[in-house]
Write a structure and sequence with these properties.
By secondary structure, the chain is an alpha+beta fold. Helices cover 17% and strands 32% of the residues.
């Protein structure tokens, strides 16, 4: 009998671990290819963005990884990221920091920004995504699982009202 309980307990732990792998720390559900699913922009972020006069589609250049500024190529990892504004994003002046999350599971890197940190103020909730035309956030073929090697260290951060 004790052996059966141990097996059931271990099985339960494994199942919980497997189910836990389908979401990120922020609770974003992942698609089968490892990219993040849709996510609503929090009401507080929408309020702050209205106050800052940030509109959907507003954009600014960012150095994707504050630790690899100007490097070529760069390697990004699944998890948190700190980017640096190269241009002003509305009323948020460069070189403010953007904080977000990176997913490398699909053919292209997905970066969602959840906070901006102006140099002279507190962190502010926002909703923005990193984009670069012509598929340039596409991972290089030699990228290992959980990483993405990119040819560009710079992209644009675009304000969004929800993540798709």
């Amino acid at each position: 009998m004790p052996t059966t309980k141990v097996i059931l307990f271990c099985s339960a732990i494994v199942l919980l671990a497997l189910f836990g792998c389908t979401t990120t720390p922020g609770g974003v559900a992942l698609r089968p290819d490892g990219t993040p699913g849709p996510e609503a922009c929090p009401a507080k972020a929408l309020e702050i963005m209205r106050y800052l006069k940030l509109h959907v589609g507003d954009a600014a250049l960012v150095e994707l990884d504050a630790n690899q500024m100007g490097a070529w190529p760069i390697t990004l990892y699944d998890g948190p990221i700190e980017s640096v504004l190269q241009d002003d994003l509305g009323t948020i002046e460069a070189p403010a920091r953007l904080y977000g999350w990176v997913w490398t599971g699909g053919p292209q890197v997905v970066i969602r920004y959840y906070e901006a940190h102006p140099l002279d103020g507190d962190k502010l909730p926002i909703c923005a995504v990193a984009r670069l035309g012509d598929g340039q956030l596409r991972k290089r073929p030699e990228s290992k699982p959980g990483t993405a090697i990119l040819n560009a260290s710079v992209a644009s951060a675009f304000v969004v009202e929800s993540f798709r």
